[in-house]
Protein 1
Amino acid sequence: MDKYLLFTPGPVNVADTLRAAICKADICHREPDFDELLGSIENKLISLFQIRNRARYRAVVITGSGTSANEAMLSSVVGKGAILILSNGEFGERLHKTSVIHNKNTHLIAMPWGTPFDMPQIAAYLQTHKIDVVAMVHHETCSGMLNPLAQIGAMAKANAALFVVDGVSSVGAEMIDMEACNIAFVSSSSSKAIGSYPGLSFVVGRKKHFKRLKRHAAKTTYLNLATFYAFLKHHRQTPNTPAVLLFFALEQALTDILCEGVMKRYARIKARADLLREGMRRLNLDFLIEEEDMCSILTTVRVPPSVSVRDIRDRLRAKSIIIYEGKGCFSGKVFQVGNIGELSDYDIRFFLAALKDVLLTLQAEATDLVAPVRSKAATLVMLPTPTHARTKAVS
Ligand SMILES: Cc1ncc(COP(=O)(O)O)c(C=O)c1O
């Protein structure tokens, strides 16, 4: 039994098949059992991405959360060249921070959080600067916005730049056509839309680009993609001791996705998002961004007037439901509801009923708070400013 329903963009409630998968006999990561396990994960990742020319792509798996895959990409692909980071949110900013540590020649085009990129601006920048690598977050989790892979990929290609993508929160829920979008490397993690436990991440990339990585001097020991590729190629292993149990779970999660069918799974996650969004619209809630710009894994909702996001979270937690609060400039203004992992339509309806109950209760409590202030004002001095009194009492 799960203690909580995780309505977050990850971690997620995992399937029973995964719980069972980690209860396997012990194996050694320098033995053929692990080679087979890693080989199977790699094969299934290539299938997940629906890659047509399978032989042209490889996938390395890293013991570490999504950030480690991002840091592996950013520290390994640039060399002494120049990288342009496109940012429109928290995770774009994190790519920039990480790149600055490893790459002296890091450029940035930053939009306000939750704002779409200005395509002509990016095109002009690429034409006027020598850029070797363009990096972007696919699903900017802080706002829920999907960024345009095909357009940026085409611009990178037109300017002879590699395109690398943080797919941490979209892989497993959204189609990422690496071939059509000219993506050299994409990163992701085990614990979001793929539905497994936290602790593993991976990078899928074009073989020719993996091969070229050894030209660059290593900038890290643990996260050097060239080393991961060499171990994969020569031994079908990882350079360092991997979290073997998590590999079992990841392999099972990918097996489950492929058994269901990749496109069927994407459609199921989208249908769940639609159900959730329709229910929240019926509660008169507003979303931060337009639905057509959203990823299907999560919805970012504006906090209604007179209630606090902290209270919403606390009251939902008391009903065994976990949601996220907005961060940075969205702090206190939005909450986020994910719909990935082992959540059923029944769970979505349960969530909607719980949210309705919590909002009604909080709004009623806010009104009760206001009422005595108003009557006090009326009795004592007959102040003609009930609106001011209401604002003060609630804030
Ligand atoms: C788009 C994106 N990139 C990177 C990360 C960082 O991943 P992790 O916390 O697994 O290191 C996250 C986490 O939510 C994310 O949503």
Protein 2
Amino acid sequence: MTQALKSVDQIPTVEYTPESLYNRLPQFVAWARELGPVVKQDWPDGGRVVYLIGAEANKLVMQSQREQFSHDLGWTPNIGETLGKGLLNMDPPEHDRHRKMMNPAFAIAYMSRYLPVMNRLISERARDWVERGEVDLFEETRKITFDVAAETLVGFRAGPQVDLLRELFFKLINGDGQQFASEAEWMQSVLPIRDRLMGELVRLIEARRGIPADDRSDILAMMVNARDEDGNGLSVEQMLGHVNILLVAGHETTTTLSAWLLYLLSTHPQQLAVVQAEVEALAGREGEITLEAVRAMKQLGYAVQEAGRMYPPVAMVPRGVLEDVEFGGYLLPKGTFVFLPIGAAHWDAAIFPNPERFEPERFAPPREEDKRTPYALATFGGGPRICIGVNFARVEVTAMAAEILRRFTLTPVAPEEVRQIYPGIIGQPEKGIRVRVEAR
Ligand code: HEM
């Protein structure tokens, strides 16, 4: 006889402590070990969230039972009001139509168009680093990744207009440094920023109308020219939602990953030497870095994976349950709000021994620790809804690290201040990452 499933009320309840902001991922591992892979948290306003923890949970939500978990019901309450509707918070069949339209622009072959733009923007932004003597990697990588996203994805050229958009997005997502008593109060404060940002973007989108269909150089041009079977195009509101989500998803995450990667390599001389030797062998000390070279940089690739394992920019992803689903002996009824802490398994010592150690070689043969447990490494999500920008991000982060590490020696100024904070879904180095820069 099968055992009766337990109800949501019977799921063990957990509570955050102030320290949870910093050790969120190891904490999920500890909860799962102590209480099982399903735990819940009750919010003061009467809301409740269920956490599904570990590689098995990742597989359930992202692959085997994914139709039962809605992106729309999960993400829209988190980002819908500020960003609108894009791929991330759409469900099928609408999602699948839109993803099909965008997929070609994210295929690896397409990266040969983007890489020269990335190379140019990386060099321009890093040009004065030595002169400045000290920079904050987190600030600098944000400038680079936003310039890159703005130009490659939506054709906005770097300059004061793009700087303004970056600052507005930053305020919209991260706030203005102010504290708010309630979500409503916070919303009140961001609405004028959102309206200003949307006004700027609509102007830029409108300016793109009328560009001939054969000049599809970026995704915005693709969207402007897209027609369904009845000949209808996307509305400005639909394009705006996509542009917002592509710009945010396309730079917040790569900013954090590249800042951590540069920091980790700069504080691990042995691994740094291996990476620098590889970069020099494949791309020399100067000149254009080709896609072929980027793709051949295996050691740097392992370091990128390791930085993403230790400090995944996206700690967890939200979902709404669409149909009753079972997991870990519990019945999760339709309507349950779920968080999948995709990065929890990254800190599980049973999968990645000594998870606190930066060891890129754990991804190289013969260790290949990620391959032993499917869905354990989920920096970019997984299954059919895996990050559409995964190739884009890997190429960008690799090219950026290669260029910076072949030109400069970076020395962290205050390593004791460098730590990742996860206020919610997205993580970032709390006080930035300040480094001294010298020419090599
Ligand atoms: C280090 C960089 C990045 C990380 C860690 C990252 C992480 C993720 C994750 C975990 C998801 C899955 C979300 C879920 O299952 O709910 C996702 C989806 C997505 N990402 Fe990324 N991402 C990165 C870079 C990018 C870039 C560069 C772009 C665009 C250029 C992008 C655009 C998107 C979009 C549009 C989705 C939704 C895809 C869909 O649902 O069909 N991301 N990303």
